[in-house]
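Priority: medium. Attachment 1 of 2:
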């Protein structure tokens, strides 16, 4: 399953909850404001070793670059969802 997080981990507990409830085989996709997690050292440490995708467009819109995970564009996200099935979306 895909765990998709939309909100900043500094404003909500969405990312924390997604990590708590994800299974080992689940993929994690950060998009919208959640992408800020990939530039925060504490979050990078927590996300290490997890199959992680970060939306490229959202990074670019915020002037960020990801040091962890794999960057993903919208066509890539659509392919990922087609392969893995409907995502669990975390957006409070």
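Attachment 2 of 2:
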């Amino acid at each position: 399953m895909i765990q998709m997080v939309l909100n900043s981990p500094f404003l909500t507990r969405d990312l924390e909850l997604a990590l708590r409830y994800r299974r080992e085989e689940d993929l994690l996709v950060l998009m919208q404001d959640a992408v800020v997690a990939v530039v925060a050292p504490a979050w990078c440490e927590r996300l290490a070793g997890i199959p992680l995708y970060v939306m490229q467009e959202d990074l670019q819109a915020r002037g960020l670059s990801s040091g962890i995970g794999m960057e993903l564009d919208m066509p890539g996200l659509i392919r990922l969802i087609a392969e893995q099935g409907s995502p669990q979306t975390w957006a409070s």
